[in-house]
Write the structure tokens for this entry.
Amino acid sequence: MAKHNELGKEGELQAIHFLRKKGYEILEKNYRYLKAEVDIIARKKEILVAVEVKTRSSNYFGDPQDFVNHKKIQLLLAAIDYYVTKRDLDVEVRFDIIAILKKKDTTYEIEHLEDAFLFF
């Protein structure tokens, strides 16, 4: 597996651990619909949360969340719309980003941006 793929998978595991500690129930990991992949679908109380995880080993070229572009947002919206419709869910939906920077000493700096797409 390529090094960047390994870092991405490790970031997703860190994000899942982080969310569980904050009281989220993890419903799906790597949910796919057409060309879209939602890294994590979680629930906290009555809110369904679609989480995009961005992990980087450096912020030299920008913060991890800077790499979520308009096309990715459109794909995530379509995937969650399908997920909610297919399951006939009546829930509030929120889109979050978990931005992770891996430090040289194998620790992680995690930033949770709730309602992240409001800022795009």
Notes: The mean pLDDT is 86. The longest helix spans residues 3-21. The two ends are 32 Å apart (CA to CA).
